[in-house]
Amino acid sequence: MLHLRMITPPDRTEAVVSAVESTVGTTHLVVLPGAARDPEGDLVLCDVAREAGDELLHELRQLGIDKDGSIAVENIDLSLSQHADAAEEEAPGEPADAVVWEQLAEATHEESTLTITYAAFMIIATMIAACGVVLDNAVLIVGAMAVGPEFGPLAGVCTGLVQRKPRLAARSLAALLIGFAAAIIATTVFSVVMDAMGLFSEGKLDNPRPNTSFIWQPDPFSFVVALLAGVAGMLSLTSAKAGALVGVAISVTTVPAAANAAVAMSYGEYGQMLGSANQLLLNLGGIMLAGVLTLYAWKLLWRTQRGRWKRRLPRP
């Protein structure tokens, strides 16, 4: 269930209440006239099944409540109410399959903004991966994958394209490209310093590396894995499931490839550098392609399911 808190201009409160009452899957409607002070207006509260949340939010935005008032949405972790149970039963589909597009856009907006924290995580993850590729250590590679924050911008690009929000897509793409560029430059300097300290060496990079050699040798499986990771990542995001393990899958050949490119650049190993760069671009492209197609398919599937449900409603 979702909890909605709305501040509505008094002249539109009745329209808001009507929209809530006409949306199947809503309950716990509360209206407090004149309760809001900033902005001034009435306070309207309600709970809505996740499956019906996107439809209700669309109607509220058509009424201009987001511009002249306020709409706040919260997830309800626990609701002990027979009314809530009945509302979820009436709503079409299953909660885990429902996509609240406004919530998705807001989540990807927060995760895809280029910040100091995002850049720091990207640089640290790439440096950890650099240690992993030089030492051919799978544990360090997995650790770098867990730290890498690139899933947010990747999801932002996909959401922006599907929702036709060019600013979100452009901002996410900029965060992704600038983040990787900064990480590669910083890791190249890091590799030079580690070599000066005797901890890295060109010989270690050229030695057989059975655990990490795939990072700079892209093949058809690389693209297949990228497609599967993109689908899994978007499903995790749209269903509001915990995405920690999905984030690791997304990073399989992105952060490690950037790290291998940086270390190879520091030693003038341009063959490995180009191979790693190709691996990075191949996987980023595959993940975004799969993410966009998954969101389009999810939107079409949900629209078809909702259309069938509406046709089954009894005529007044």
UniProtKB/TrEMBL annotation:
Q: Membrane-spanning residues where?
A: 116-135, 174-200, 220-237, 244-268, 280-302
Highest taxon above the source species:
Bacteria
Which InterPro entries does the record associate with it? DUF389 (IPR005240)
Q: Keywords on this record? A: Membrane, Transmembrane, Transmembrane helix
Which named protein is this?
A: DUF389 domain-containing protein
Q: Origin organism of this chain?
A: Streptomyces venezuelae
